[in-house]
Amino acid sequence: MKIQILLVGMALIGPLTHSGYSQTTADTTQNRAAKPVEKKYQAKAPKTQPLGVVAFGPSKQTTIRWLGFAGFFVNSRGTTFMIDPVLEGFDMPVLIDFPIAPKAVPKLDAVLVTHADNDHFSVPTNQNLKGVTNAYHSTIYVDSLMQNLGLPAFGHTIGDSFQVGPVRVKLTPADHAYQNAYPGMSKRRFKNEDACGFWIQTPDGTIWAPGDSRLTPGHLSMPTPDAIFFDFSDSEWHFTFEGAVKVANAYPNTPLLLCHWGSVDAPDFNPFNGDPARLAKAIVNPGRIKVLAPGEPFMLKPLKKSK
To answer: Measured between alpha carbons, how far is 40 from 17 in angstroms, rounded to an integer?
Structure first.
C-alpha cells in the first residue's frame, strides 16, 4: 500500500524538489548535471537507543518510548502495547534506525492503529508482529483491513472504550478524510470516523494520542492529559503548525512527546519535516517539549491539576 498522504502532498505543493522524488525535464536534468542541487535542511531525530527485551518485562511504572514516525511503545506496569508502529518496510527513505525489528519483539498485549495510511498502519510491521500480539484495535474501517490480513483485530466506533489489561482506551474524533478532496485518489468515500485518536488511561496517568487530524474545537477542550503524542506537522490535513501551537497552549503544563518528525527523508514534504526548535519558540512553557530519540524511555507521571 503506497502512502496516500504523499499523493496529497504532491497535489498541494506540486512536484517535490527533493532528490529521488522530483519530476524532471530535460532542462532541469542538464542544470543538475552542471550544478548539484544542495539538499535542504531537515531536523533529524537523535540517535536511536535500541529497544531490548527487558523493556517488555514486569514494571512498577508506565514507560513510554517513541518508535519513530508517529509510533510509540508503552509498558504500563507490565502491560505492553504499541500505537501506530512502523518498524520496517516503509516506501520512502528514512532518517532513523528503527529501535527494534518486529520479529525481535517478545510480546505485546495490543497494537492500536489510528488510521490506514502506511506511516501509521504498516502492513509489513503488523504482519510480523502478529505472532506475539494478543489483539489489534482501531476504527471499524481499519479493522476490516486488519481482518483481511488475518490479524486478531477489533473495530470500534468513535467514543467507544476497551481495556488492555489495567489500561482503558477510548477512541477520540479525528478529521482526516483527505482522500475525498482529490478525485481519483480512492474509489471509496472516506468518513471522518475511519480515523481516530486514542485517550489512554493508565494507572500512572493519562496519555492522549490525537492521531492525524485537522484542528477541531474538540482538540482544544479535552481534559488535561499527562502526556500528548504531539504532531506539529505544518500540513493542512494535520493540525497545521499554528493549530499545533494552539493545542500545546491549551494544555500549558502537559509534556509534549514529539512525533511525526525527523524520521522520513522528505525536507520538502510538510507532514514529515517539523523542526522542534521552531516549536520551542512558539509555545508557552517550552521546557515541556520532549525531543526523544527512538527507543528512549520517558516515565509517565500525573500532573498536578488545579482545582
So the answer is: 9
> Measured in whole angstroms, how far is the alpha carbon of residue 15 from the centre of its chain?
25
Q: Does residue 21 have a pLDDT over 80?
A: no
Grid cell digits, residue 50: 535500541
How many DSSP H helices and E strands does the chain contain? 6, 14
pTM exceeds 0.70 for this model: yes
State residue 304's pLDDT score: 84
pLDDT of residue 49: 98
What is the rounded CA–CA span in Å between residue 60 and residue 77?
A: 5
Residue type, 35: K
Which residues touch 130 (CB under 8 Å, ≥6 apart)? 149, 150, 151, 152
Distance CA 277, CA 205 (A): 27
Q: Count Cβ atoms within 10 A of the Cβ of residue 127 and give its class: 0-12 exposed, 13-18 middle, 19 or more buried.
A: middle
